[in-house]
Amino acid sequence: MIFGSGVLRSMLITLKNFFTSYFKGPEEGGIFTVEYPETRLPEKERFRNFPFLVYDRNPENLRCVACDICAKECPPKCIYIVREFDKEGRPLKRPAVFDIDFTVCMNCGICEEACPFDAIYMDHEFEIAGPERQSRLLYHKDDLLKSNEYFHKIRPTDATAIDQQRREAEEKKKAAAEAAAKAKQPD
Amino acid sequence: MDTRFPSEKAYPFDSESSVGMKTEKIFSMQTLDQIFIIAKKIILGVTGHFLPDWACLLTSILISISAIAVLGPFTMMYLTLLERKVIGRMQNRIGPNRVGKWGLLQPFADGIKMLTKEDIVPLEADKVIHFLAPLFIVMPALLVFAVIPFGRNMTAVDLNVGLLFFIAVSSTTTIAIFMASWSSRNKFSLLGGMRSAAQMISYEIPMVLSVVPVIMMAGSLSTNSIVEAQSRWHGLKWFVFTPWGFLGFIIFFLCAVAECNRSPFDLPEGESEIVAGFHTEYSGMKFALFYMAEFMNSFTLSGLAVTLFLGGWQGPFLPSWIWFFLKTYALIFVMIWFRGTLPRVRVDQLMGLAWKFLLPLTLANLLVTGFWYFTSRPVRIAGSMVLLALAFWILTKLNRDVVPEKRVYHFAE
Amino acid sequence: MEKIFSARDPSALNTETLEINFGPQHPSTHGVFRMNIVCDGETVVSLKPVMGYLHRNHEQIAENMSYAASMPYTDRLDYFNSMSNNFGYSLAVEKLANIEVPERAQYIRVIMAELTRLVNHVSVIGFLLNDLGAFFTPVLYAFREREKILDIFEEVSGARMMCNYFRFGGVKYEIQPHILQRIKEIVKKFPKFLEEFEALLSKNEILCMRCQNVGVLPKELAVSASITGPMLRASGVDYDIRKVDKYSIYGRFKFRIPLGEKGDVYDRYYVRILEMHESLKILDQALKDIPATGELVSKKMAPFLKSPRNFKPPVGEAYGRVEAPKGELGFYVVSDGTPQPWRYHVRAPSFINLTILEDMCLGHKIADVIVILGSVDIVLGEVDH
C-alpha cells in the first residue's frame, strides 16, 4: 500500500456523498435535512411534550378532581394544585388553581400514568418559545385546558381506548347504582 | 498617448483601436478575453482628455488597485459561502439556504453581523499590537494579488521578481499571527502562535524549493513569463504534466494548504484543541479580518499554484480569465474537500512531514529537474519517473514510524 | 552543545512549564469537564481532572421520591443512551423486589438496549473524529443513522432521547409490528453504512497517525483502575457483563466479544466498530425470536403502574448492572420498606473510566489529550450525576 492511499480513499467517500446529495434520496446518501418550519416530520402518536388537562364538552366540565396525585408523583414537582371550595367552605371536586411550570417540567409523562381520572395527558405542542423567561412558561389552568376532541386529534388510539374505558366504567357504575337502588326498593 | 502609459505599451492594441473593435465584432473571443483591459482603456481614454499625465497614471494605478480591493474581499465573502455549501453537501446537508436564493446573500448577513458585534479587547492585552495584528494579516494577503496573472495582460504589476515578491510578502503573515497570539495574553492564543510560527517557517522551505524547478525550466521569476513558458500545445503544455512538475505541484499545494492554515494543517487555530488558536480573543470585525486573510490567502495561493503548474490563464476555447478562475476554484474546491474529509495532524507529525518527507522530496525533485533539462526525450520521462519513485520509496521506508500498523483483533466467545 | 539539543533533559534548557486551564468551557471537553494541564511546550507534564460542574444531586433526589419516579432521572444520566440506563435501574429494582419480567418485554428490552449501543458507538466515533479535527463529516454521517434509530425510539416510547420507556417488570408501551419491521430494515442497512464509515476512517493515514500508540492503557492498569466497557476490552481483557452475568436474556444470543491488542485510541475506536457488528447480530436474533404477543408488564407490577407510591419493595438491598455502551452501569438500591429507596447509588462508567485519564495522557501532546478524552467516551451528565 502506498502511503496516502487511505487518505485518498476517504476523500473519495466524501466526494461520492457530495454528488449523491444532488441526485439521490435520503436513503441512498442524499440530503437528509428536514427544512423545519416549511416541512415537518410526521407527528408520532406517542410523542410527548408538556401536559394538558382534558375536558369533556365544555371547559367547565373538566375531568380533573384536584386529587393532587399527579403533583405528588411528579418527579421535578412542577405541578401546583389548589382545590376549589364552595361558598360554605366545602371542598369541590375541581381545582381552583392548576399551574404547571414548563421551565421545570421534564416531559416524563408520569403525571399521565398516575392520574386515576384520565384528566391529564401529554401534548404534542412543542413550539412554546417566547421572549420572556418565566412568566410565559408558567401555564395556568386556562392555558392547559384542552378538549377531548383535541386529544382525539393528536392521539386517536389512546383517546379511543380511554373513552371506551370511561364509558364501560360509567355503565358499570350506573348498573351498580341501579342494582343498589333495586336492592333498596323492596325495603 | 504612448508616452502616457509606458507600462502598457506592449498591449496588442491601444485604446482607439479597441473601441473600434468593440463596435465591429463585439462578441469576438479576443474582445471577451480582453474585456477588463478594454474597460480600463476606455476609462483612461476618457479621463485622458481632461486630466494631466500624472493624474492619468494615478488613475491607471487606482483602477487596478480598486479592482483588486473589490475582488479580494468579494472572493473571500463568497468563498465562505462556497465552503459552507460544499462541506454541507459532503455531509449530506443543504448548507446556508435562508438568506436570499440558495443563501446567496448569506455573506452579507454575516458581514453585517460581524460589523455590529461588540469589539472585545482583553483587559490585559497589549492594546496597540492587538489592534494592529488583524491589519497586518490582511495587508500581505491583499498585496500578493498584485503579481497574480488573472488573464492575458491582466497582471496588476508585472514584476520581474514576481514570484519572489509573492513568497516574501506572504511569509510576513507569520509575524501578524504571532502579534495576535502574543498580544492577546491568552494561553490558547500563545500555543496557537507557537504552532503557527513553527509551521509557517517549516513549510516555507519545501514550498520555495518546490517552486525552484519551475523557475529553472521557465528561466524567469516573473509570473507572466512562467505562464508564457507553458503556452505550447494550444495552452495545454502545463508543467504539471511532467514528472517533476507533478510532484512539485503536489508538494506546493500541500505546503500552500499548510501556509494558509487550512485543514488538515489548521493547527494554529485547531478548534477542538486550542479553542481558536491565535484569534481566540478577537471578535467582531477584527475576527472577520483574520478570516478574510485566510480565505484570500487560500485564493492567492491556489492562484499561484495554477500559475506555476497548471498553465495559469492558458487554455483553449474559453477566455483567459475564465480559465484562470476555473482552475483556481477547482483547487479551492480541493482545499474545501480536504477540510470536509480529513482530521487534523498533530504538531510533531506536521513538523515531521515538512522536514523529514517534503524537504528531501523537493531536493530530489530539484535533481530530477536538472536531469530532465539535460537529457533527451525518451530517456528523461522514464528516468525521472524512476528517480522520483525511488526517492518516494526510500522516504516512505525512512519514515516507517508514521505508516499505519496492521492490527489484528481477536474475539472471545 | 549536545545538552542543549537533548529535549529529554529538562534541565538542559531553561524552560518554564505552562499551566493551562482546559475547560469547563472548551469546545471539546464534551460538556463542562475541566482539566488543569501543566505542559512543557506542548507536552503534558501533569493533568488534573476537575469534575462536578454538572452535579445534579441525582442520588439524593432519587432517595426522596418513589422508585418509579427516578426512572426519568436515569434517562438524564447518560443522555445518549437512556434505554440502557433504564435497563440498569429496572434490573436493580426487579432484583430487589423479586419481579419476573415477561418474555416479550425481555426481548423488547434487549432490542432497545442494543439499538442504544448502536446509537452511542456510532456517535462517539463521530465525536472522536471531531476531536481529531475532522470538520463534522463523520459526526453527521453518524447522526444520519442515529436519526433513524431515534425516530424508532420516538415512535415506541414518545421521546427521542429521554425515553423513560422501561418499567419495573416490563416496558411501558406495546411495540407494534410495523415498528419491528422498520427495526429489521435498519439492522439490514446498518452494515452498509458501517462499511462506508470504515472506508472513510479506518485506513486513513492521518487517523492512524493520530490514534495508534496514543493513550495506551495497559491491561493491568485497566483492571486495577476498574475500567469497564469498550475501553477495557480494547486493552485486551475479556470482560463483558452481557457474557459474565447473562442478565435478562442475553444468555440466549450468540455473539462474540471483540478484544483489542494494545489498548490505544485506535483499538478503542475499532473495538467499538466491531461491537456494533456484534450488536447487529444480537438484534438479528432477537428480532427473529421475539414472541408476537404477550404481556408487557408482569402481573405483579401491573397495579403499581397507576400508583407508583404504593410500590414498596421488601427490606433489602440489590445491585443491578448492565453492560451499558460506556461500560458497567450499576445501580445499588437499598430498601427500608418505604416507598422511597433508603440508599440509591449509581456506578457511572464514564466517571470511573475517566479517573485513569492522567496516566494515559502523560508525555503526550495537548492535541492527544483531547483525542484520549474523546476515546474514553464520557457524557458529563453521567460523570457528575
Would you mind describing this structure in some detail?
- The complex is a heterotrimer of chains A (187), B (413) and C (385).
- Helix content of chain A is 37%, strand content 17%.
- Chain A contains 6 helices and 6 strands; from the N terminus they run αβαββαββαβαα.
- A 3-stranded mixed beta sheet of chain A has the order 4-1-6. Chain A has a 3-stranded antiparallel beta sheet with strand order 2-3-5.
- In chain A, a hairpin with a 5-residue loop joins β2 (79-85) and β3.
- Helices cover 67% and strands 1% of the residues of chain B.
- In chain C, 48% of the residues lie in helices and 14% in strands.
- Chain C is built from 17 helices and 9 strands.
- In chain C, the strands form 3 sheets. A 3-stranded antiparallel beta sheet of chain C has the order 1-2-3. Chain C has a 3-stranded antiparallel beta sheet with strand order 7-8-9.
- The longest helix of chain C has 30 residues, at 103-132.
- Chains B and C meet through α9, α13, α15, α16 and β1 of B and β1, α5, α6, α8 and β6 of C.
